[in-house]
TrEMBL record:
<dbReference type="InterPro" id="IPR003661">
    <property type="entry name" value="HisK_dim/P_dom"/>
</dbReference>
<keyword id="KW-0808">Transferase</keyword>
<keyword id="KW-0418">Kinase</keyword>
<protein>
    <recommendedName>
        <fullName>histidine kinase</fullName>
        <ecNumber>2.7.13.3</ecNumber>
    </recommendedName>
</protein>
<feature type="transmembrane region" description="Helical">
    <location>
        <begin position="179"/>
        <end position="202"/>
    </location>
</feature>
<dbReference type="InterPro" id="IPR036890">
    <property type="entry name" value="HATPase_C_sf"/>
</dbReference>
<dbReference type="Pfam" id="PF00512">
    <property type="entry name" value="HisKA"/>
</dbReference>
<keyword id="KW-0472">Membrane</keyword>
<dbReference type="InterPro" id="IPR036097">
    <property type="entry name" value="HisK_dim/P_sf"/>
</dbReference>
<dbReference type="InterPro" id="IPR003594">
    <property type="entry name" value="HATPase_dom"/>
</dbReference>
<dbReference type="Pfam" id="PF02518">
    <property type="entry name" value="HATPase_c"/>
</dbReference>
<keyword id="KW-0812">Transmembrane</keyword>
<keyword id="KW-0597">Phosphoprotein</keyword>
<dbReference type="InterPro" id="IPR005467">
    <property type="entry name" value="His_kinase_dom"/>
</dbReference>
<dbReference type="InterPro" id="IPR052162">
    <property type="entry name" value="Sensor_kinase/Photoreceptor"/>
</dbReference>
<dbReference type="GO" id="GO:0000155">
    <property type="term" value="F:phosphorelay sensor kinase activity"/>
</dbReference>
<feature type="transmembrane region" description="Helical">
    <location>
        <begin position="15"/>
        <end position="37"/>
    </location>
</feature>
Length: 476
C-alpha cells in the first residue's frame, strides 16, 4: 500500500513539475516574442525615421540648389516644384516622425528646434525669391551659410542619435536571444524528459495494477469457490447435527423414561444397588441430553445473516430473563440491580441466550457463605476509546457489565473459561456442560462485539460485554 502511494506521489510530482516547466517555458516564450516584436517595431521605426530625416535633408539641399540657381539666372524654371510644395512635403515628413515618437524619445526639443530652423530657412529662401540679388550681399550670403551649417549639424546629430539607438536596440535583442532561447530549450528538454519518465512510471504502475487486478480476480474466483464449498459443508453439517441430535436424543429419552419408571415403580423387585445404578444411568443420560442440546445450540450460532437483525429493547429482554429465573433467584435470595439499558440492534434469540447464560452463570457459582448480589450496569462508549480490542473507531458501543460476588476465579483463567468444554470445577461440584460461556463468546463475536472476564477467587467475577449500538457490516 505504501509502495503504491509512493509511486503515485512520484508520478504526481513529476506531472506537476512538467506542468510548472511548461508554464515557465510558455512564459519565457511569450516574453521573448513580445520583446522580439517590440524590438522589430522599434528598429523599423528608427530606420524609417533615419530614412525620413535623410529625405528631408535631401529635399532641403535640392531646394537650396534651386534657389541659388534662380538667384543667378532669375529663371522661374528652378522654382519647380514650388517652395510651398517643398515645405508641405517636409512638414508631412516631420509630422510622421513626430507621431512615431522616436525623435521625442531621444531629444524632446529636437523636433521643435528642427522645425523652427527649417521654417527660418524657407523664410530666407522666400526672401531670396523676391530679392534675387540678396545672395550677392555679404551679410545675406553669410546668413545663408550659417543656416545651412546649423541645419547640417542638427541633421547629423539627430541621425547619429537614431543610429546609436538602433545599435542599442539590436544589442538588447541579441541579449534576449542569447540568454532566453537556451533557457527555453533547456526547460523544454527537462519538461519532455520528466514527462517521459512520468509516463513510463504511470505505464509501469498501470501494468502492476492490471496484474494485481488479474490476481485479485483469480483470488476472488477461488474465494467464491471456497465460500460455496464452505456453505455446502455448513449445510451438510447442519443437517448432520440435526439428524445426529434427533437420533441421539430419541434413545436418550427412552433411557431416561424407562429408568425413571423402574426407579419409581412400587412393586419393583430391584435391589437397592440396581436402583442406585439406574439413578446414575438416568443422571448421565440427562447430562448427555443437555450436552447434545448445548452442542446443537452452539452449532446453530455458526451462521448468521443481516436480515436477522432487529432493534431490541435490552431492558425488556433482561426483565423477561429474570422472570424466567425467578425460582432460583428466590431460592438463593439474590439481590439483583439492573440499570436502564438502551435499545440496540441484534439477533434476538442470540442476545437472549447471551444474557441468560451470563446471569445463570452468576447464580450457579454463587458463594455459600453470603447472599448473592448481581449488578448489571451499562455505559455508551465510542469505539475509539476501546483499547483492549480492535473496535470500529466510528461506531458506538454499549458496554454492559454483569458483576457478582460469587466464588470467582483466578485471573489467569480469564481466557480459558471461554473455550468449549473447558471447566474450572468438576461436574460433581457444579453442574454444567462447559459450553455456556463458549456460546456467549460466539454470540458476541456474531454481533461484532467483544467480551472480557475478570475474577478474584472467593470474591466474585465480572463479565464485560461490548455490543455495537447499530449493526456493523457483517463482513467487515
Amino acid at each position: 500500500m505504501f509502495k503504491f502511494l509512493n509511486t503515485f506521489q512520484r508520478i504526481r510530482n513529476g506531472f506537476i513539475l512538467s506542468i510548472v516547466l511548461l508554464i515557465i517555458t510558455s512564459l519565457l516564450s511569450f516574453l521573448i516574442c513580445i520583446s522580439f516584436f517590440q524590438n522589430i517595431r522599434m528598429i523599423n521605426q528608427t530606420a524609417a525615421a533615419i530614412s525620413q530625416f535623410q529625405e528631408i535633408k535631401l529635399v532641403l539641399k535640392q531646394t537650396e540648389s534651386n534657389i541659388r540657381a534662380f538667384a543667378l539666372s532669375t529663371d522661374s524654371v528652378y522654382l519647380i516644384p514650388s517652395i510651398a510644395e517643398q515645405q508641405d512635403q517636409i512638414s508631412t515628413n516631420l509630422l510622421s516622425i513626430q507621431k512615431s515618437g522616436q525623435l521625442d524619445d531621444l531629444a524632446p526639443k529636437s523636433i521643435s528646434v528642427l522645425k523652427n530652423k527649417i521654417d527660418s530657412r524657407f523664410a530666407f529662401w522666400k526672401k531670396v525669391i523676391t530679392e534675387p540679388d540678396c545672395l550677392k550681399n555679404k551679410e545675406c550670403y553669410s546668413e545663408d551659410n550659417r543656416q545651412m551649417n546649423e541645419l547640417e549639424l542638427l541633421f547629423n546629430s539627430i541621425i547619429y542619435d537614431h543610429k546609436k539607438l538602433l545599435l542599442e536596440q539590436n544589442r538588447i535583442y541579441n541579449n534576449y536571444t542569447e540568454y532566453l532561447i537556451p533557457v527555453i530549450l533547456i526547460t523544454s528538454l527537462l519538461g519532455i524528459i520528466i514527462s517521459f519518465i512520468s509516463y513510463m512510471g504511470l505505464k509501469n504502475d498501470l501494468k502492476v495494477k492490471v496484474e494485481n487486478l488479474t490476481q485479485l480476480n483469480n483470488l476472488k474466483t477461488e474465494l467464491e469457490f471456497k465460500v460455496n464449498s464452505l456453505n455446502r459443508s455448513n449445510y451438510e453439517l447442519d443437517q448432520f447435527a440435526y439428524v445426529a441430535s434427533h437420533d441421539l436424543q430419541e434413545p436418550l429419552r427412552k433411557i431416561i423414561s424407562f429408568s425413571e419408571v423402574l426407579i419409581h415403580e412400587k412393586d419393583s423387585k430391584l435391589s437397592s444397588t440396581a436402583t442406585s445404578y439406574l439413578g446414575v444411568i438416568s443422571k448421565a443420560s440427562v447430562r448427555m441430553k443437555r450436552l447434545i442440546e448445548d452442542l446443537l445450540e452452539y452449532s446453530r450460532l455458526s451462521q448468521t445473516s443481516a436480515h436477522e437483525y432487529e432493534e431490541i429493547e435490552l431492558e425488556i429482554m433482561l426483565v423477561g430473563i429474570l422472570k424466567d429465573l425467578e425460582i432460583p433467584i428466590k431460592e438463593k435470595q439474590v439481590d439483583i440491580s439492573l440499570s436502564k439499558l438502551p435499545p440496540i440492534w441484534g439477533i434476538k434469540f442470540q442476545l437472549n441466550q447471551l444474557f441468560l447464560n451470563l446471569i445463570s452463570n452468576s447464580l450457579k457459582y454463587s458463594s455459600p457463605n453470603r447472599l448473592p448480589i448481581i449488578k448489571i450496569n451499562h455505559q455508551i462508549i465510542n469505539g475509539n476509546l476501546i483499547f483492549d480490542f480492535s473496535a470500529h473507531a466510528s461506531e458506538q458501543y454499549c458496554k454492559i457489565e454483569v458483576i457478582d460476588n460469587g466464588i470467582g476465579f483466578e485471573e489467569k483463567y480469564a481466557q480459558d473459561i471461554f473455550m468449549i468444554f473447558n471447566r474450572l470445577h468438576s461436574r460433581h461440584e457444579y453442574e454444567g456442560t462447559g459450553i455456556g460461556l463458549s456460546i456467549c463468546k460466539r454470540v458476541v463475536e456474531n454481533h461484532k462485539g467483544f467480551i472480557q472476564a475478570f475474577g478474584h477467587e472467593n470474591e466474585g467475577a465480572m463479565f464485560r460485554v461490548y455490543l455495537p449500538i447499530k449493526p456493523i457490516n457483517h463482513y467487515a
